[in-house]
Each structure stands twice: as C-alpha cells, then as structure tokens.
Write a structure and sequence with these properties.
- The structure holds 2 protein chains of 2 kinds.
- Chain A is an alpha/beta fold.
- Chain A has a single domain (2-288), classed as HUPs (Rossmann fold, 3-Layer(aba) Sandwich).
- Chain A is built from 14 helices and 8 strands.
- In chain A, the strands form 2 sheets. Chain A has a 6-stranded mixed sheet with strand order 3-2-1-4-6-5, sandwiched between helices. Chain A has a two-stranded antiparallel sheet with strand order 7-8.
- In chain A, helix 5 packs across helix 13, helix 7 packs across helix 10 and helix 7 (125-137) crosses helix 11.
- By secondary structure, chain B is mainly beta.
- Chain B has one domain: Ubiquitin-like (UB roll).
- The radius of gyration of chain B is 11 Å and the shape is globular.
- Classes of the chains: A alpha/beta, B mainly beta.
- The A-B interface holds A 21, 23-25, 96, 99-100, 123, 126-127, 130-131, 169-170, 172-174, 177-178, 185-188, 191-192, 194, 196-197, 200-201, 204-205, 207-208, 279 and B 6-7, 9, 30-33, 35, 37, 42, 58-65.
C-alpha cells in the first residue's frame, strides 16, 4: 500500500497490534495487513455501550475466528469497573471524549504490555479530513501539529500508524462488501449528531461539487503544512513522568484515564439512554476555552 | 422494489425501475456517503434497479475518530 511505504509505517518484522472495533475500517485494515503478510493481532475494547458494544464485539470475534487471528479483549466494565456512559456522567465529559481517552490509554497499554512495537488504527481519509477541518476551524496549532499518519514511539507510547489515510470511507465499506467481511453497519448510538459527523457531511458536500477536494485538503496539508508545523506541538515537547496510579506516561500527577476510573468506578452503571444526544455542543466550547 | 435503509434500520417499498443514482437522489441521500447493494452485490451509480430487486442502501459514514 502506498501510505505504508510513503510514510514508512510498517516493516514485515514488526509486531503489529490492530485496534479493532468491529466496524468496517478496523476490520478492513486488519484484513489488508494480514493479506499483505504482516503479523498482526487484534485488540478489542468493550466500551459498555449497551447492545451496540455487544454486537460490535461479536463482529470482531467472528472476523478473528474466521481468519484464524488472535484477538485480545479488554472490558472497561469487567476490568476497570466502569463503562463509557457512566464515565460521561461521572466526569461531565462529552461521551465521545470519555470514550476516546479510555480507548487511547488501553490501546497504548495493550501494545506496550504485549510487546507490540506498532499500534495500527483504522482512521481513513474521511476521518482525517474531518479532524483537520475541525482543527482548522479553531486554528488549533497544537492539534494540527500532531495530526500525522505516523507518530513515533516515545516515552512509553508505542509507534502509532494509520495505513488507511489515503483511502475514503466509501472505499473501505466497498472493500468489506467485496471481501465478504461482516462488519457492524449500525452507528454508535452515542456518536449520532456529533461534530465529527457534521464535518464529514460538509466535506462530502464539497466533494460532490468539486471531486478530489477531500483528498487534496488532507494530503496537501501533510505535504505543505505539516512540515511548517513540525516542532510546534507543546505536548510533544513536554517532559513526561509516570502516572502516580498506573505508571502510564502523563504530564499531570495522574493520567486522564485514571482520573476517569477514579470518578466513574464509584458510580452505579448509567444506562446508555441517559447520555444519548450529549455528544453535541460541549466539545467545541470546551476546546474554545483552552 | 424493497429498499433496506440503515441507521435506523427500516424497509420501504418502491414501484417501478430506476437507476442507483436516481434512487439515491429521490431519497435525498448523498452518493459519496452511501453504497448500494442489489440482491447481495455491490452495484455502481449507473446500474439499473428492477422492480423485483432487493436493494440495500448502506451508509458508509461513521462518527468515531
């Protein structure tokens, strides 16, 4: 694949861990990497988003079974005493934020603990273009400087790569259908109405009027803007130390994940229905205050 | 034709034949955000859909990042 070579993402000797949600992108990238001959295990994090999580886990397990692949599973509820709806309620965070923090921490931990030297996620061109649009609308230099298809290993973090950044969401869905991959089509009930989806709709509208715009927007950002932003990430320069609770790298006394665990594990489980529609509105205002 | 829509899952019945692009336009669904599967096979925008076809319109946009 062009992205793997161009951005020097993977080598055949790497031990690769693929973050798998049961959706089209993560199953497609797992499928593509194994087809290309990479040794890639999967990691599924059970987020406790009701029936949606039950179904997504079933899709991930079925794919692993059918392809003879190893799937590592982590359950937020069973192993850390909370789930995403409860975390959102306990921390007053947007659910997608609590979800993202939890996943990123557990992906890093599983990769480091398991001796994997590369963590792969299924972010595609549409995902990256939508994030880029959001970051650009806020001129968020910190996030823009870190929006790269490859993040090198650093201070307890594994190398992270996104092999699908040149491929559209539509292409990934088509790949799954043609390959007979049974992925979870239904959308996360909590994500409905979030800004990420709104940005994607805007970009698709532009793409309809001017084909090629989406790829040009993101890929020319990588080509022309990323080099200018190199070294401008404050987080990338901050010295990290170990979280007082779990030992993960952090800039604070405790990492964001342990902060969520501390608040959410003490609560009774919050039903998914209680946080539906809460993905809208807060994230932008929170970021704007930074 | 029977048309299966997603998010939320529902089924509608439409009379007559039409192309994939016409069907999507009629339902105000952007082509960039959807794939169309006819009787289990992925079909392009200019494919004709017959009155007795089973059609699934599958959204390809997901909200996580």
């Amino acid at each position: 694949m062009k992205a793997i070579e161009k951005f020097d993402m993977l080598h055949v000797t790497d031990r690769v861990l693929v973050a798998v949600s049961g959706g089209k992108d993560s199953l497609a990238v797992w499928d593509l990497l194994t087809e290309l001959g990479y040794q890639a295990d999967g990691l599924y994090v059970g987020l406790g988003i009701g029936e949606y999580s039950d179904t997504s886990g079933a899709h991930a397990r079925r794919f692993a079974d059918e392809h003879g692949l190893k799937l590592i599973e982590v359950s937020l509820r069973d192993e850390y005493g909370y789930d995403v709806p409860t975390a959102a309620a306990a921390t007053n965070r947007v659910p997608c934020s609590a979800c993202g923090i939890s996943k990123r921490h557990l992906f890093d931990k599983a990769a480091i603990d398991g001796g994997y030297n590369v963590l792969v996620t299924g972010h595609n061109l549409d995902d990256e273009a939508a994030v880029l649009l959001g970051n650009t609308l806020r001129w968020d230099i910190e996030y823009l400087a870190r929006q790269l298809p490859v993040l090198p290993a650093r201070d307890g973090f594994p190398k992270k790569v996104k092999p699908l950044v040149r491929l559209t969401e539509r292409e990934m869905a088509a790949w799954c259908i043609v390959r007979g991959i049974d992925y979870l089509v239904d959308e996360c009930p909590i994500a409905a109405g979030n800004k990420h989806l709104a940005y994607k709709a805007v970009l698709n509208s532009v793409e309809h009027e001017s084909p090629g715009s989406k790829a040009a927007f993101y890929l020319n950002f990588l080509e022309n803007m990323s080099p200018l932003l190199a070294g401008m990430s404050v987080a990338g320069k901050d010295s990290l130390h170990s979280c007082a609770t779990c030992g993960a790298p952090t800039t604070g006394e405790n990492c964001a994940f342990c902060s969520i665990v501390g608040k959410a594990a003490a609560l009774d489980p919050v039903p998914v229905e209680c946080v539906l529609g809460k993905s809208v509105g807060k994230s932008l205002s929170k970021r704007a205050r930074r | 034709m029977k048309v299966l829509l997603r998010n939320p899952s529902r089924e509608i019945e439409l009379a007559g034949r039409r192309s994939v692009n016409s069907l999507l336009a009629e339902l105000a669904l952007p082509r960039e955000a959807h794939l169309v599967i006819r009787n289990g096979t992925l079909v392009p925008g200019d494919a004709d859909l017959a009155a007795d076809d089973l059609v699934e319109i599958r959204p390809v946009i997901s909200g996580g990042a």
